[in-house]
Amino acid sequence: MDPTPFIDLKAQFLALRPQIEKALVNVAAATQFIGGPEVGQLEKALAAFVGGGEVIGCANGTDALTLPLLAWEVGPGDAVFCPSFTFVATAEVVALRGATPIFVDVDPQTYNLSPEDLERKIQLVFKKGRLKPKVVIPVDLFGLPADFPAIKAIAKKFDILVLEDAAQGFGGEIFGQKAGLLADAGATSFFPAKPLGCYGDGGAVLVRDPHLAEVIRSSRSHGQGSSKYEHVRLGVNSRLDTLQAAILLEKLSVFPNELEARQKVAQGYNELLSDQIIKPVVPEGYYSAWAQYTVRVPAQLRSGLIQYLKEAGVPANIYYPLGLHQQPYYKQLAGKDFDASCPETEKAALEVLSLPMHPYLSDETLARISSLVNQGLELGAK
Ligand SMILES: Cc1ncc(COP(=O)(O)O)c(C=O)c1O
Question: Which residue in 19, 38, 213, 302 could disulfide with 245, CB within 3.0 to 4.6 Å?
Fold first, then answer.
């Protein structure tokens, strides 16, 4: 039997092939590869999808995080709070600005930033007195929005800004409010494996404040002023290609259906996986974009289970094998005397396992993967 893809981009392409081919040829024929009309059309369509605000396309999700930090003049001496359990880009952008990432532990059920530990770490930064708390970057990990109601209340109390890392969360919601627009600014990624992915790199910043939108638009194009060769601020070159925008416009038209299909896959796993396995939790009122379906298994059984699945042609991945506070480069940025411990992250890193998740997963494949996981665990436990 052929191996099961972890994310089936081929099935998605085949389902959309005529529209995608037409879109690609249109862009090639028009030759407006940079700043073509599809970019503006996509920005408007994305803003309509999230229910307001302004969307600014850029080159990737990492730049989408960088641009608001640049606009807020985050730099040396600033503390930026990031979850310890996330992809490195969340903290990398902070260090690149010369600011200091302060790692916050995660909730053991949702894997998202813990509001209690956030408050503790902010107090600790004040106590040490070396850095100024400036921004918190909650991540919508695995597609589930972070606890924005609680995080925003803490941010308000300490007067810090909130940047939503919705790289994995685009399509998610909290009580009907769409991910990306849940904070002072939001960043998303169109990396191919993301819920809404393009055919290369791409990203977008989402904001409600028109002034901030204007600054970010200028910053993504070398700090451009009212004309192309007037530069009013420090900027970068971070544009979304017209080709990628054209592809995303086609994909966005089926995205709501794909999100529903992802809910069905998640429900199927929830029903079919045995009770020995800790399944993902979606709090009341939350809607996950299901970028990943991530379970927890006993640490001592995990590598055996991965091998068992691999032999049966089923890939299973570990996101993430280490917390960022454990990473060689990042672990001492806050200073040796700073208690950076994040025990829930360390435990999760030993136990998590992500299973194939995409909208084109058939019921048959879902049943096969689930019974292989159940069997593999039982065999390992014997
Ligand atoms: C949580 C998180 N933040 C940021 C990024 C960066 O996105 P990109 O790869 O588009 O730069 C990613 C994607 O890999 C991510 O998963």
Answer: 38
